[in-house]
Every structure is written in C-alpha cells, then in structure tokens.
Amino acid sequence: RARIYSPVRSPSARFERLPPRSEDIYADPAAYVMRRSISSPKYDYLGDRRPVPAGLFPYNYPPSPTVHDKMDELLDLQLQRNLEYLDQQVPPYPEVFRDSLHTYKLNEQDTDKLLGKLCEQKQG
C-alpha cells in the first residue's frame, strides 16, 4: 500500500525549512542611480536590471553544488540522525536479551522432545 507522508515527515520538507537562497544575484539598482536633476525625480536612472556578468560582480560566491549533491547530502544526514535516534531508543542487545534467549533455546529443546514423544506415541 502506498505510503502517505505527513508534511513534517515528507522527504521534501527539509528543503522548505532551509533558509531561502537569494536566487537572483543582481546588482543593487540604487548603486547606479545617476540623477540628471536634483530637483526632479522624473529623470532618475535606475540602472541596468539585467544580471551583472560574473567577472564584474564584486563578491566571490562559492560555486553551489548541484541539486543532486544537496539531496544526497540531506538524505545522508537524515539517515544518520535516524540511526542515532534508533540507537538511543534500543538498549544494547546482550544485556536485555541474553537470558531470555537462553531460556528460549531450552524451551525449544523441551518442545522438540515433547513433539518427538507425541509422534512416537501416535505411530506406536
């Protein structure tokens, strides 16, 4: 049956919670305002709104990894957190189950003996 995710557990929910990246790197138009007349705002030049070529832009942004790499990174991180959480929830194996496992083995042997006797009685 298909798995229905609540919004919180949805695999894509992590993307919504990440801080938004500035998707458009434009130069600030205010930096290029050239007023032809101090008195009249009619002639304000708001600059070129096209993206500035990378070489002209004063800030050096690190190259962003591909979406695929980010997704892998997020999934790895989520998996690691889930495993750590589960490790905390489950007590270590030997302490809890050592005794019960041993008695279970003994009970299994007893059951085998009883079944063997029953089969012999039925055949005999």
Structural class: mainly alpha
Low-confidence stretches: 13-19
Strand content: under 5%
Q: What is the oligomer described by this structure?
A: single chain
What is the share of helical residues? 40-55%
Helix and strand pattern: HHH
Q: State the end-to-end CA separation.
A: 50 Å
| Count of alpha and pi helical runs | 3
The shape, in one word, is: rod-shaped
- The overall average pLDDT, rounded, is 66
Radius of gyration computed on alpha carbons:
34 Å
Biggest sheet: strands, sense, closure?
A: none
Structural domains: how many:
3
**Number of beta strands:** 0
Organism: Homo sapiens (Human)
Protein name: Phosphoinositol 3-phosphate-binding protein 3
Short description:
This protein is mainly alpha-helical and 124 residues long. Helices cover 48% and strands 0% of the residues. The protein has three domains: 26-61, no CATH class; 64-91; 92-124.
Pick out its properties.
124 residues; mainly alpha; 3 domains; 3 helices; 0% strand; rod-shaped
Please describe what this structure looks like:
The protein is mainly alpha-helical. It has three domains: 26-61, no CATH class; 64-91; 92-124. The chain has helices at residues 13-17, 67-89, 93-123. The protein is rod-shaped. It starts with 12 loop residues before the first helix and ends with a helix. The model is unreliable at 13-19 (pLDDT under 50).
